Amino acid sequence: MALIITDECINCDVCEPECPNGAITQGDEIYEIEPDLCTECVGHYDTSQCVEVCPVDCIPKDPDHEESYEQLYGKYLKITGESE
Q: How does DSSP classify residue 3?
């Protein structure tokens, strides 16, 4: 699954620079995650970096974008231009 930022976001700015895929941007009211770029850090790290640094725990899995580990890894390969 891609991740999503909920409306509990306090705009603290710590998640955006942690995203290795550039999936997090400032939205109209809160930060947002682009699901096509979110790999939950698969391929980069063992854990989702935005979740690790979020002080209010407002970044759950997005139920509207369910993906397996293999799908997330495939997205990582596409985004980075790497091959298996």
A: B
Contact between 38 and 21 (Cβ < 8 Å)? yes
Span 1-23, pLDDT tens digits: 799 999 999 999 999 999 999 99
Q: Of 43, 59, 41, 62, nearest to 51 (Cα)?
A: 59
Average pLDDT, the chain: 96
Tell me the DSSP string of 8-60. T----S-SGGG-TT--EEE-SSSEEE-TTT--TTTTT-SS-HHHHH-TT----
Residue labelled with tokens 């930022």: 5
Spell out the CATH class of 16-80: alpha beta
Q: Any idea where the domains of the chain sit in the sequence?
A: 16-80
The model carries a pTM of 0.91
SS3 68: coil
